Amino acid sequence: MAEIVYHTLIEQPVFRTYVFYVAILSLKLLAMSVLTSIQRFKHSAFANPEDAGPRKLKVNVNENVERVRRAHLNDLENIPIFFVVALIYLTTNPPVFLATMLIRLFTISRFIHSFVYAVVVLPQPSRALSFAVGYFITGYMAVNSIFYYLL
């Protein structure tokens, strides 16, 4: 029985879209860790004395490192909750086109957010708008799921 449910779920186009974009967003989270490390070494800005290694560099704060780190923290605050909420939303049998577009838009908004925050620093409201898109998509999915299961 469990195998039948698994095969039925995995064959659904919207679930396959979800899994694909979860993998993309997971790689993005991993890449942000690497980008933070690259910036730390590039600017010799280490958070802990032992991280500086044998060079005995001092703990140093650098705005370039901090921007990447804050973008990564923002991802860590928003992407995992999206994973959970989107999965719950998919159990409500949403229209395939709508669910697919919401998942794609969330993913695009998170990439844009990191890009304008940490790579090419653009003035507000660029970062706020990209954040808001993802935030409201997650909120829409959560509210929609609540109403689906409430009734």
UniProtKB/TrEMBL annotation:
Reaction(s) catalysed by this chain's protein: RX + glutathione = an S-substituted glutathione + a halide anion + H(+)
InterPro entries this protein is in?
A: MAPEG-like_dom_sf (IPR023352), Membr-assoc_MAPEG (IPR001129), MGST1-like (IPR040162)
What's its EC?
A: 2.5.1.18
Q: Offer an example of a GO molecular function term for this protein.
A: glutathione transferase activity
The keyword Transferase is assigned to this record: yes
- Write the record's keywords in alphabetical order, separated by commas: Acetylation, Endoplasmic reticulum, Membrane, Mitochondrion, Mitochondrion outer membrane, Transferase, Transmembrane, Transmembrane helix
Query: What role does it play?
Result: Conjugation of reduced glutathione to a wide number of exogenous and endogenous hydrophobic electrophiles.
Note the PANTHER family from the entry: MICROSOMAL GLUTATHIONE S-TRANSFERASE 1
Under the subunit heading, UniProt states:
Homotrimer; The trimer binds only one molecule of glutathione.
Provide the family line. Belongs to the MAPEG family.
Q: What is this protein called?
A: Microsomal glutathione S-transferase 1
Q: Which organism is it from?
A: Hypothenemus hampei (Coffee berry borer)
